[in-house]
Amino acid sequence: MQLLSPCTNLEENLVLFHYGELPPPERFSLEQHLSGCANCTAYLKDLNALLPLTVKADEPPETFWMDYSRELRHKIAEVRERRFWPARFAAFFQPRLLPAFGAVVVLALALTFTLGKRIWQSDELPREEEALMEVLPVAEDLDFFKTMDVLDNLDVLELMANPGAA
Amino acid sequence: MRAGDEELVRLAQGGNEQAFEELVERHKQKAYHIAFDFCRDREDAKDLSQDAFLKAFVNLKNFDGRSSFYTWFYRILVNLCLDYKRRLKRSPTDSFDETSEPQMERSHEPSQPRSPDQQVLTRQMSRRVDAALQALPAKQRTAFILKNHQGLSIKEIAELMQTAEGTVKVHLHRAVTALRHSLAEFV
If residue B44 lies in a helix (H) or strand (E), which one and from where to where? Predict the structure, then answer.
């Protein structure tokens, strides 16, 4: 079918006129133009005939709307449930709880490092270790005493070999 | 006295479940009809509009009231509808099929008994209208549906599409011109 072309410069205004969106000064001007232009009048007539055909309203029954609301409530409840636990977890990281959370972390780190380096342990040794510490120097001097014994024995042997020398 | 949307939003943001349910009750029919205009399928329209409510529920804390709840919510819905169309285009099994009966026909309760010839003609025209609407670029289709089907003002459409009113007028004009040529045989 051959479509009649409206005046090119007025085509957009004709669409707005069809929808009642053309402001008064331009509307009056267009109405005057339409009274003398067959093509623009035909264009407007086409729009009036064609555009309502593109609308297909759907009116579902009442039961549809009841199901709609019930289904949506169910879906919202599911979303709320899914969001509950992550939200509780995330609550620990809320700004007002961050200082407390930070303090706990710092305290835990401080205890870990200081205990690792035995800063909190007493300098006093247990009783058994104390006794061992007393014996150790004596044990270190044992060789000296053994050497002294050998020298004494040498003196005795020299006296036996040269009795006159004493 | 009936609370306004903004008051209900404020209550819902504070955890009042009834307030959000009231918002749903207020907007569900319009939301459904907008979704239906985009997808022309009853079940898909229900899912899309419900998804929009769910998305609004999840993001309600981020709603700062700079625009009205109405604009904010319908923007979410229209974006979901456009995503749906994009997904449909990518999926070959869901593409327009001449042999299948359009859902739109099933969605309508005929007000009067129609002759077989009339039914065939109506069905054929529905297919052509569907195809013509689907062929429109997303912005033109959105502007056209919101104006022609939903009767929103140019100003409301511009707010919803986050664009200038002049741009909406251009989209609308181009959409109407394209549809007029596609559906010339029905004029």
Answer: helix B42-58
The arithmetic mean of pLDDT across residues A128-149, rounded, is: 69
Q: Do the chains contact at B50 and A72, CB–CB below 8 Å?
A: yes
Q: Do B176 and A76 touch (CB under 8 A)?
A: no
pLDDT digits 0-9 by tens, A92-121 = 666 667 777 788 888 888 888 777 766 666
C-alpha pair distances (Å), B73 with each of A74, A105, A154, B52, B55: 20, 43, 113, 7, 9
- Give every CB contact of residue A73 below 8 A, 6+ residues apart in sequence: B21
B11 — contact with chain A (CB < 8 Å)? no
Residues B122 and B70 in one domain: no
- Using CA coordinates, name the residue in chain B closest to A42: B187
Q: What is the pLDDT of residue B107?
A: 44
Task: For chain A, say whether B155 makes contact (Cβ under 8 Å).
Answer: no
Domain limits for position B153: 115-187
Please report the pLDDT score of residue A135 as a whole number: 66
pTM (predicted TM-score): 0.69
Same domain, B84 and B121: no
